[in-house]
Structure formats: structure tokens, C-alpha cells
Amino acid sequence: MALTLMKGSEAIAEAAIRAGARFFFGYPITPQTEIPEYMSARMPEVGGCFLQAESEVAAINMVYGAAGTGARVITSSSSPGVSLKQEGISYCAGAQLPCVILNVMRGGPGLGNIQASQADYFQGVKGGGNGDYHLLTYAPSSVQEAIDIMMFAFEKAEKYRMPVLFLADGIIAQMMEPVEMPEMVEYKVDPEKKPWACTGWKPGDDPAKRGVINSIYIDTKRGVINSIYIDTESLSIHNEHLQAIYKEAKANEQIWENYKTEDAEFIITAFGTVARIAKTAIDELREQGVKVGLFRPISVWPFPYDAMRETICRDQVKGVLDVEVNEGQMLEDVKLGLEGAKPVRFFGHLGSQFPTTDEIKSEILAMKEGK
Q1: 206 — phi, psi (to 5°)?
Q2: Which of 128, 249, 277, 330 is the most buried (most CB within 10 A)?
Q3: pLDDT digits (tens, 9 = 90+) for 69-102
Q4: Total domains in the fold of the chain
């Protein structure tokens, strides 16, 4: 396939369409406004539905409705907008509705600014809404990687009947890169593969449910999309069922990247765009004879704890530097996974100030010198 120069937002939106998404509900907010803008033009061309909702709250509830029919549906927003969606996201998780949610992270807290950030990590992987639930959460570090993940995101969402979240910092959405776009997936809702979905009344499904409703003869079962279980025993059973699904996802859906870690004496942990900055620092440090590598989680839920331990808990590794654009949110998972096996140092900026290669190199050199 030929490479095409595309802006991140537009490339990710096109990838969603090519993955079979035919419903988009959203609301403009920088730095992801180009996603709904692109969808507004493209969805009608493929027979899909674009709708700018009156708010982020409305958009996520529209996602709930469309996902309940078995359709492939997507929404996007940036940090404050995703905060508004949290109740609806919890509802989607509780009702086991497959969907894709894009969070193009910007600086906070509150309105913050419109520049890139990584400060929504806790919200994305620890659960921003109420209740015990998880989202399959990916943190791409390039436009191409976001495209590639999008092409299997709906399949994973449908396999586990759970929402998928993209944690993409604003740089990925706003920069342009040469990308290779995949072929269009021809997707149609198959009631046989999605028996839980509300796909309409069909004759012959359940003879025991035959009857007359509003003078219409009905010969079918009723699809119910629901997240409310009034009695405690039913809710407990439902939650145990969800936890079994999450356990399966943890076992099968961890994705990560190792970069020059084979002989590394120091390991940098980072995700998203920061990992790309770290790679440049690693290359420059190796030219100076300093053996440094990178461990990058691509799935941040489930977090690849075992792979991280295997990479870092080796005799030659002297220490870990976790680099993020937040107060050290992924740092907690790094420390949790290592269980004190190696010393871990944090370096990061708050808001939207990204670390430079020189800053990362200085931190590694300080660790090497025992400072």
C-alpha cells in the first residue's frame, strides 16, 4: 500500500470507518475537533450516521443506544469532555456494550489548556465512573499505531463485550505523519453472533414467548440492555460475571514494546508520545556508551506487569526512570509491578510541558553516577 500524509485526527477517524464504524456521536472540543469534523463529511459517504450532540453527556448516551443494537459506534472527546462522559461510560460497561471511545488528552485539571498531556491515565485505567469496571485501554505512540489498534479495537470490544478506550495525547491527534491505511472492512450486524443485541423482532426465536402485544402477533424473544440489578444477589452475580471477563482480558490482551532492552543497565518506562522522545534520548545515550532501553506499555489496561518484570528484573539492570507528562500516574503501576525489585525514579512535567531529550539524558546520567 502507498503511504499517505495525514493528520492524526483524520487518520484515526478514517481508520474507525474502515474498521466498520457507522455511527459517530460527539461534540467539538480542542484538540480533537477535527475528528467530528472529518466524520461529519465522511459518515454520509459510507451510509453511516454522524450526529453532533448537544453535549458530551448526550453523545455517550447515544453511543449506549446505538451499541445496544449491535452496531459499531464510536465517540471522541478531550479530557474535560471525557469527564462528562464518565457516567455513560460506566453504564456502557455495566450493560456490557461494545464501543470505542477516544480521549485526546489535554492539560488540566479543569479546563487547563488545549495542549497535549498525559494526565488522564488514572481516569482511563483506574475507572473514572462509578462501580467496579474496566475498559480495554490503549496508549498509541504514533498515528500509524493508532490506526493499527483501531483495526482490531471493535473486535476486542465485541469479544469481551466491553468498551475500548484510546488514551492519545494531543500531539498524536494534531501532528501529520505518513501512514498506511488498511482496506475497508465490510461489517454487518449478525444477530446470530450478537444474540444480546436489540436487532428487532424476529419470528421463531422462542416459542415460549409467543403472544399478542398491541394486537400484533409476536413470535420471538425480547432483547434487554440493562445495568440495573435491584436485589443484591443479582448484582453480585453480575459483577462476578464481569470480573471473570476482565480476568480473561488480563490474560490475553497485554501489549507492550521493548526497545534496546537486551543489554540495558537502565530502563526508561514511558507511554504515548513521551516514549518517542525517550527513544531519541536512548539512541543519543548509547552513542555515549550508556546502555539504556525502553519498556513501553501499549495496553495500559490490562497493564503488562509480567512482561515489565521480565524486562527489568534482570541482574544487569541498575535502575528505572519513569517519564510522563503528569504527576507520576503510570509510576504507580510500574512500582506495583516491580514490587521493590529495582530502584525507580520519576521525572515528569505537569500540565502540557513535555520533557526534552536533554532532560531525560541528564536524569539517566545522574542515576549512572549515583546522584
Answers
A1: -145, 95
A2: 330
A3: 999 999 999 999 999 999 999 999 999 999 999 9
A4: 2
